[in-house]
Design a protein that fits this description.
The chain is of the alpha/beta class. The protein has two domains: 355 residues, 3-Layer(aba) Sandwich (Alkaline Phosphatase, subunit A), CATH 3.40.720; 71 residues, Arylsulfatase, C-terminal domain (2-Layer Sandwich). It has twelve helices and 15 strands.
């Protein structure tokens, strides 16, 4: 695969030279400043503590760490849910999962379920503004009908998988759910181009597709969503990365994602657009820990490396809305706008991306629609703070809420694989002094508990028809 990239880079630099030659042959004319591009790199099931810039000592992530050095690293960046589908829907719509009609995980047999077409996505809004829009990687917002696919939600083109790489024929979950799944397909604009996939090559394939998109669209504004498959099970890495990390196949897959980030950034710089591209690196939820709590016969159903991720110093992980499930890496880079090396402690959430991008483009939010996200442009530019709102976590039902320093967690475990909680009553934590959610202080603050419960109940009442 590396030889493939050497060829690609020869083609890209040749294209750059031709573009520069054409530019110098034309008389100079006044032009408007270039519009902002948007690149969102989303890992799948990457833990809060899995990157060097977030404290990892077992994963080498120099390219992602460089993004943090050149931009802003949030310590309190959140997603709306601790599983795939609801977070991705919330990112693209700026709305919480129940509000946008995508509260639960979609399975291969979920052929009638999808992100509702009445929802207006960030891709659609940018497409209408003249942007080239592209998805490289995992979709997971509907696959049963053409109107469920990315092109029906604002993406010009899509290369990737319709759902996670473990939802494939022969996986133990297929047997447990008593369903019949097809081999995992790779799709190009809705057509199957490979089946089954090779999980070891996914990061290479998505990277090549993303870089190819940049090479073709560097001369116009674009939105590129690079949605990696890794380190979600079934974990894989290409031969150049296998057995190279200090943390098994899980670490190998993360170090390959870091390499991928470097390649995409190199493409932006090669075409002179890295300073006009807002880059976000994040994850759709925290790392998986729940399998470790189960008997050996259950663990054998899953890839052993699934438990190698780190959400340190947070509690919990994927499937639950403790901090380890919903607080994720959040790194923003935009030279000349975002000061380099800034560590930001104010909270932000994935639903903020849509209103933030529209703020930069001076595009108003669509009317007659409730948006849960808020622009964080003042935060990114160190000019002010985000409008203070509560963060509600969960999918089909709200199971957690952060309000200022307070975090309320309901005693509900959304997966049969998770460990038993210490209480059957709501748990309350002060995140200012207890980031690990180890000291339940609900009994000391009953009024805070009641207040936060009311907010969660109000949200569920508002969204019960969806």
């Amino acid at each position: 695969m590396r030889c493939c990239f050497r060829f690609l880079w020869f083609a890209f630099f040749t294209s750059s030279i031709l573009c520069l030659t054409r530019a110098t042959a034309q008389p100079s004319v006044a032009s408007d400043p270039p519009r902002l591009n948007l690149l969102v790199i989303m890992a799948d099931d990457l833990g809060y503590g899995d990157l060097g810039c977030y404290g990892s000592s077992v994963h080498r992530t120099p390219h992602i760490d460089r993004l943090a050095d050149e931009g802003m690293r949030f310590t309190d960046f959140y997603v709306t849910s601790s599983v795939c589908t609801p977070t991705r829907a919330a990112f693209l719509t700026g709305r919480l999962p129940r509000r946008c009609g995508s509260p639960g995980v979609l399975w291969p047999t979920s052929t009638e379920d999808a992100l509702p077409n009445v929802e207006v996505t960030l891709a659609e809004l940018l497409q209408d503004a003249g942007y080239a829009t592209h998805l490289s990687g995992k979709w997971h917002l509907g696959h049963g009908k053409p109107e469920h696919l990315p092109q029906a939600h604002g993406f010009d083109h899509w290369y990737g998988m319709p759902y996670p790489n473990d939802m494939t024929a022969g996986h133990p979950q297929e047997t447990r759910r008593r369903e019949a799944w097809p081999p995992m397909p790779m799709m190009l604009d809705g057509e199957i181009v490979e089946q089954p996939i090779n999980v070891n090559l996914l990061t290479q394939q998505y990277t090549a597709d993303a870089v190819n998109f940049i090479s073709k669209h560097h001369d116009r504004p674009f939105f590129l969503f690079l949605a990696h498959a890794m380190p979600h099970a079934i974990i894989g890495a290409s031969p150049d990365f296998v057995s190279k990390s200090q943390n098994g196949l899980y670490g190998d897959s993360i170090e390959e994602i870091d390499w991928s980030t470097g390649e995409v950034m190199r493409a932006l710089k090669a075409f002179g657009i890295d300073d006009t591209t807002l880059v976000l690196f994040t994850s759709d939820n925290g790392a998986t820990h729940h399998v470790a709590h189960q008997p050996d016969e259950v663990q054998r159903w899953f890839c052993a490396d699934m438990t190698s991720g780190s959400n340190a110093p947070l509690r919990g992980g994927k499937q639950a809305t403790f901090e380890g499930g919903v607080r994720v890496p959040g790194i923003f880079r935009l030279p000349g706008v975002i000061a380099p090396g800034k560590v930001e402690s104010s909270p932000a959430i994935i639903t903020d991306i849509l209103p933030t991008m529209l703020d930069y483009l001076k595009i108003p939010l669509p009317a007659e629609r409730v948006y849960d996200g808020r622009t964080i442009r003042p935060v990114l530019e160190s000019l002010g703070s985000r409008d203070e709102t509560d963060f509600i976590f969960g999918g089909n039902e709200a199971t957690g809420i952060r309000s200022g320093k307070w975090k309320l967690q309901l005693p509900k475990q959304p997966s049969w694989m998770l460990p038993k909680l210490e209480s059957d009553q709501p748990l309350l934590f002060d995140l200012n002094v207890d980031i690990g959610e180890s000291n339940n202080i609900a009994e000391q603050h009953p009024e805070i508990v009641k207040q936060l419960l009311r907010k969660m109940q109000t949200y569920e009442a508002e969204t019960e028809t969806r």
